Amino acid sequence: MVTQATSLSRSGLSDFLIQRLSAVVLTLYALCLLGFFLVNHSIDHGSLTAFFGAPSMQAFSILAVLSTAAHGWIGLWTVGTDYLRPHYFGAWASALRMVYQAVCGLVLFVYAWWGIRLFWLVGS
Amino acid sequence: MQVSIYRYNPDVDEAPQMRDMALELPKGRDLMVLDVLERLKEQDPSLSYRRSCREGVCGSDGVNMNGKNGLACITPVSAVAKRGKLVLRPLPGLPVIRDLVVDMDQFFAQFEKVRPYLINDKPPPAGERLQSPEERAKLDGLYECILCACCSTACPSFWWNPDKFIGPAGLLQAYRFLADSRDTATAERLGELDDPYSVFRCRGIMNCVNVCPKGLNPSRAIGKIRGLLVRQGV
Fold first, then answer.
1. At which of B102, B120, B143 does a domain end?
2. Contact yes or no for B161 and A85 at CB 8 A
3. Residue A83: closest CA among chain B residues belongs to which residue?
């Protein structure tokens, strides 16, 4: 078996399932938002706060944020391990991959932290 | 007809190059690409390629013809030539030894990883290990692979990670033994495949299905392996 220290779960099967389940969550979340914007013609701060501030929607939004982070990490990790290889970058490939993964991790962490904070505080 | 061929002799050439050769085709007949190569070799005996059975059984003469992998011996020129031009390159992604001859070591190393032989820990019976017709039918579409490497070398995931991703040919064989009722190492075999590369680097683009000269479907076999992994691991 090929071992990988930086894949999300170290298991190909777990990553595969997480990626698909997170995709389902994000699809449902997108449909939910689409439904809200189609049904409500007059959208203002009050209606948005009421919608996103409902406890069920807060939980769903935070789940969507976490799904984005997990889905994003698995996808970006795959892209990085496909293209940042010694064949193209020689001895620099590993260093380049580490920097790339660190940047991706940082960006996804900021998105997750910011998103959770935003949805946690909405309406309060 | 104009034939553009990838030429590279590492002892002489600094870099590979495409070289044009002209060939008069017989009127009213459609040659196979291997016939074209044979005639070109009469013109230039230094032209190198692999061939053996010349009837699509041995899998030696896998080449890239006008951008699509296939067996030169069973591919008619009319099926691949565009605007009277035939472009021949070695199978992509593998190191070139010379001209159209590629080094298949990486391909066979991946094939070896899946342990492509029957494993059975029960004492051998006096006769054969029997299968029902239904159990035997599960191997159809799996055992026919001739290891020509057309599929694996058409797969970008194999190009990017030939040392880690087993590739469609190896995975077809992996499933051939997972599906075999006489094999008792299913859990062990699946355990060896549950990493982010061996199976899961397949992105399902199905180039393998598109080029297989035997009409096999490695994508379906990979899907079945994923299904077995899910059933075992969830």
1. B102
2. yes
3. B160
Cα–Cα distance, B47 to B38 (Å, whole number): 9
Task: Using pLDDT thresholds of 50, 70 and 90, give the confidence band for residue A123.
Answer: low
At B234 the pLDDT is 82
pLDDT of amino acid A1: 55
Contact check, Cβ <8 Å, A16/B226: yes
Candidate from A10, A16, A85 with C-beta closest to B200: A16
Q: Is A84 on the interface with B (CB under 8 A)?
A: no
Contact A1 B230 (CB under 8 A): no
Q: DSSP states of B169-194 as a string? A: HHHHHHHHHHS-TT---HHHHHHTT-
Contact (CB, 8 A) for B119 and B183:
yes
Q: What is the distance between the alpha carbons of residues B105 and B155, in angstroms, rounded to a whole number?
A: 17
For chain A, which domains are there?
12-121 (1.20.1300.10)
Of the residues B81, B102, B123, which one is the last residue of a structural domain? B102
Q: Which two tokens stand for residue B207?
A: 């180039």
Q: Which domain holds residue B76?
A: 2-102
Within this chain, do residues B98 and B12 fall inside the same structural domain, yes or no?
yes
The per-residue pLDDT for range B153-207, each reduced to its tens digit, is: 999 999 999 999 999 999 999 999 999 999 999 999 999 999 999 999 999 999 9
Q: Which of A2, A78, A82 sits opposite B195 (nearest CB)?
A: A2
Q: Please name the member of B156, B198, B229 whose beta carbon is closest to the beta carbon of A1.
A: B198
Per the structure, how many domains does chain B have? Answer: 2
Q: A-chain residues within 8 Å CB-CB of B92?
A: none
Give strand pairing partners of A81.
none
CB B66 within 8 A of CB B2: no
How would you label A70-93 residue by residue, b for 16+ Cβ within 10 Å and e otherwise?
bbbbbebbbebbbebbeeeeeeee
Examine the domain organization and report whether B159 and B201 are in the same domain.
Answer: yes
Hey, what amino acid is at B148? C
